Amino acid sequence: MQAMNSLHASSQLTAQPAPALSPDKLGFAPDATWMWSTFVDESSTAIFLISREGVVEYANLPARTLLSGQPAGNVAGRSLAELLGAEHASERLQHIANVLDSNRVVAMEDMLRGKRLQCVLRPCPPIRGERPTKVIAVAHLSALYAGTQNGYPTVRTRTTDGGRLKDLTAKELEILRLIGTGMSTQEIADALGRSVKTVEWHRVSLGEKLGVDNRVLLARIAIAAGLVSLEDTDTANSPRFDAGVAAAAPANTSSTTSATTSSTTSANAPVRAKRPAR
User: Fold this and answer.
1) Same domain flag for 125 and 185
2) How far is CA 152 from the centre of its chain?
């Protein structure tokens, strides 16, 4: 439970982890069951327990969705190789082994299913034995976690999984990024020196490729992918962003969200409208 004590204690990369307090000093029973339920089961952040061999032994709801690519998919007892593919699993198992062998916390920069993550890997103290054999992973969206790593050493994965983003053109990625900042269609057209109709055409194409039906969801995908940070967004006008939902929801989600944008009155209109003429 130490990982839950102070994940955002400081905005400085060089900050040191806050000292852990034992339950008895805080004035409640040392039984960790209720703490696990409160901080793990009910968390909107993806949290999962994985063995040295790469078998997922536990995953909360956001983690099940993240690892399986399906809402609340079944991942318990499955290997990373089965869930992510052999190449992706192999590199991540190396980082897990390093954490267990060194018995220290590491923040792993990762890209999984189109979401850029800061995944904190922490060795779990064993009940028996001299060395830890499992790690607990806490996967934050990088857009929300950047600058608050609590001073943990950071490693970056070489293999990445862009999900549906890998099917986008460079121009579509640029427009997706600008949508993520909260810019309206007119503002994007002005910034790129293109017509509004051309930008709308690209927006329709983005919706079809990413499986979403409005620009609010496009903006959430852009933030989750790390194309923009929250500092880049117009906080007064950009879409309200639910970190937990975005971390958990697959790229093809069709769920709706309560949000407002600086766009024109068609900002929340379905993306799958008739393509405008170029």
Assistant:
1) no
2) 18
Among 106, 140, 156, identify where a domain stops: 156
CA–CA separation, 212 vs 2, rounded Å?
Answer: 37
In this structure, the dihedral spanned by the alpha carbons of residues 137, 139, 142 and 147, taken in order and rounded to 10 degrees, is -50
* Model pLDDT for residues 147-195, shown as the tens digit of each residue: 555 678 889 999 888 888 888 989 999 999 999 999 999 999 999 999 9
Q: How, if at all, do strands 46-51 and 56-59 pair? A: antiparallel
pLDDT at 25: 60
Q: Which of the listed residues 105, 138, 156 is the one where a domain comes to its end?
A: 156
- DSSP character string of 91-118: HHHHHHHHHHHHT--EEEEEEETTEEEE
**Distance from chain centroid for Cα 31:** 30
Give tens-digit pLDDT for 104-134: 999 999 999 899 998 999 999 887 777 899 9
| Reported pTM | 0.68
Residues 151 and 194 in one domain: no
CA distance 48 to 61: 9
